[in-house]
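Lecture 7 notes: from sequence to structure.
We start with the chain below.
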Amino acid sequence: QVQLVESGGGLVQPGGSLRLSCAASGFPFTLYSMSWYRQAPGKERELVALINSGGRIIRYADSVKGRFTISRDNAKNTVYLQMNSLKPEDTAVYYCNFLSNWGQGTQVTVSS
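Predicted structure tokens for the same chain:
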């Protein structure tokens, strides 16, 4: 059974940093691209970042380029999202994704 478990969200001031983690199980993690999405209140879910199975192909939403970094540790079946220079508009529930599978989400709130 596929499981994606996110952690690392919380409340942070503008300009601060957070690192999200997604622990994956139940499928051959090393063979698949992984993604982070987010959904803010009243908005559609949007792709934030994607990393391919080998970690060499990475894509970011324009809104997070230069501030967020996606990475993966295939030995730990874990994908990360390092978020720096956070802005209030980054406030959302962040979800880990592969194919049609989603984690439960972790709340990120950027506020002073």
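Points to note: The chain has no helices and eleven strands. The mean pLDDT is 97.
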